Amino acid sequence: MASHAAAAAAAASTRANTLSRIFASSSPTPPPKPSPKIKRALTQKSPAADADSIADKKPPKPLGAQPAADAPDSDAGHKLPKSYRAIFKGLLRQRDPDKLVSEFVGASSASSRFRDKHHVYEVAVSRLASSGRQDGIHAILDAQKRFLEASTEAFAARLIRLYGRAAMPSHAVAAFHELPAKHKSTRTFNAVLAACDEGREFDALVVAFQEIPASHSSVAPNAYSYNILIRALCKKHGSRSDLAAALEVVSLMEKHGVSPDIISFNTLLNGFYKCGLMDDAETVWDMMKERNLEPDAKCYNAKLRGLVAEGRIEDAAAVVERLEKDGPKPDTVSYNELIRGYCKAGRLQDAKKLYDDLIKNECAPNKGTYETLLPRLLQAQELDCALRYCHELLSSKRTNGVECGLLQDVVNALIEASRVEEATKLVELGQKKYYLQKGLRMPHTAQDNELIAETDEEESISEEKVL
Q1: Nearest C-alpha neighbor of 400 from the set 337, 339, 332
Q2: Burial class of residue 373, CB neighbours in 10 A (0-12, 13-18, 19+)
Q3: Which of 21, 122, 213, 421 has the fewest CB atoms within 10 Å of its CB?
Q4: Using CA atoms, how far apart are residues 389 and 406, in angstroms rounded to an integer?
Q5: How far apart are CA 223 and CA 218, in angstroms?
Q6: Could you read off the pLDDT of 339-369 as tens digits, one per residue?
Q7: DSSP letter for each residue of 391-415
Q8: pLDDT the model gives residue 74
Q9: Closest C-alpha to 194, from 163, 217, 238
Q10: Is the peptide bond before 328 cis (omega within 30 degrees of 0)?
Q11: Is the pLDDT assigned to residue 120 strictly greater than 60?
């Protein structure tokens, strides 16, 4: 007993030293310059224009009057000449990144109601990011800073998170430091951590975790903050030392009066099982038990993922069986993991049976379910079963984002098997639901090809007669 306690203490000491080394090895990243290098000019007329110059441009007239330069809250009396919906549609249709930036800055400057619309910011940043226009993203977000003093903490946090969505974490850190004092809070601090995590700047995240709370008394890391740190350490390199440091964050939390929650331990379990450290993962289960935390289905899903990755299908099946009997109730992901394991092991009949169990236990099949099973069914030429699954998918309220190409493969297989009528009905049902715009269609049959060939031959003969 004493030797076990000594070993546990030694392990904890090692983890603490590892965490200390990671903190010590992470050096601060200098903040970005106010005007980042532009990949290409934002306007034809001014090749040297940078993001700041765009943000200062007057908005186009159709989008409303510009507020006074020194009065960020002076848009209270201004109204957009178009409805928000009309402006949003216009921005969605705008294919020119320069005009998108200009029109967005104009609309956001003219109306506080526009600035309250989260989705339009997400869409604009996503569009510019996909075009590689970080200069335009900076222009849009930099133009919002004039409104921070009069805006809410939520607005400030949203701007920081958007830098993360655009893979610009250093800008997120800089944006935090430029916030008014009233907005330098735990919420905006968490937005910085999330932005660094999303941009995979894990060293910058560790530095921010060290420096921001130390220099701002208004910032006190909470469970959400520590969970982001745990996730970052688990993803950093996937090494045993990083995972040991992630495990020690639990002690760091408790030292500062913050209780780890089920998300903390679920993140750790995913980290250990992903790296194949099955024995080390047992430490996490023990820590949960010590703290009287009941594991949920997500915790067991991490274990299922690890077992399936190692080919331990019978062990994974035993876990699902135990969950069905004793709880917590398995969810769709639980079944999907085991279905994936059965398919990898060539046990398609077991996978099909598990699909039926999933339905019987009131779970809803999702994208992962269908994208695992349908290709295997087509390979095994089990068209009846594949067709049934497709009809169940399309009869549900949602299509779960299943790729159109997968349904098209089923349609093509039906055509090859001369089951044209069933293929036609499947296409018609798919087009009614969602897949018309995605291109689900009937391929040419052999009869179609013969008819086309005959028509081409007749046209060729007619042309010869005319000549």
Answers
A1: 332
A2: buried
A3: 421
A4: 12
A5: 16
A6: 999 999 999 999 999 999 999 999 999 999 9
A7: HHHHHSS--TT--HHHHHHHHHHHH
A8: 46
A9: 163
A10: yes
A11: yes
Residue 57: band (very low, low, confident or very high) from pLDDT cuts 50, 70, 90: very low
User: Is residue 33 classed exposed, middle or buried when 0-12, 13-18 and 19+ CB atoms within 10 A define those classes?
Assistant: exposed
Task: Measure the CA–CA gap between 1 and 360, rounded to whole angstroms.
Answer: 46
Question: DSSP E strands: which ranges in 293-386?
Answer: none
- Indicate the pLDDT class of residue 8, thresholds 50, 70 and 90: very low
- The residue whose two tokens read 């200390």 is 20
Give the pair of three-digit tokens for residue 405. 């190409």
Q: Distance (Å, rounded) from C-alpha 442 to C-alpha 287?
A: 56
Residue 181, CB-side half-sphere exposure with 13 Å CA sphere = 3
Calpha distance 317→306 (Å, rounded) = 13
Q: Which residues fall within 8 angstroms of residue 80, CB to CB, at 6 or more apart?
A: 63, 64, 87, 107, 110, 111, 113, 114
Could you tell me how far CA 309 lies from the centroid of its own chain?
23
In degrees and rounded to multiples of 5, residue 29 shows phi and psi of -95, 125
CB–CB of 430/407 below 8 Å? Answer: yes
d(CA 151, CA 145) in angstroms, rounded, equals 10
- CA torsion, points 255, 261, 264, 268, in degrees to nearest 10? 100
- Block residue for tokens 């009528």: 421
The Cα 319–Cα 327 span in angstroms is 10
> For residue 129, what are its two tokens?
């990011």
Q: CA angle, 238 as apex, 236 and 239 as ends, to 5°?
A: 110
- 382 phi/psi in degrees, rounded to 5: -95, 75
Query: What does the alpha-carbon distance between residue 4 and residue 447 come to, in Å, rounded to a whole number?
Result: 76
Per-residue pLDDT at 49 exceeds 50? no
Measured CA to CA, the distance from residue 166 to residue 152 in angstroms comes to: 22
Amino acid at the residue 221:
P
Give tens-digit pLDDT for 135-175.
999 999 999 999 999 999 999 999 999 999 999 999 999 99
Q: How far is CA 227 from CA 71, 231, 276, 292, in A?
A: 39, 6, 21, 19
The token pair that represents 438 in the structure block: 């995605």
Any idea which of 39-48, 68-77, 86-95, 384-393 has the lowest mean pLDDT? 39-48
How many whole angstroms separate alpha carbon 42 and alpha carbon 50?
7
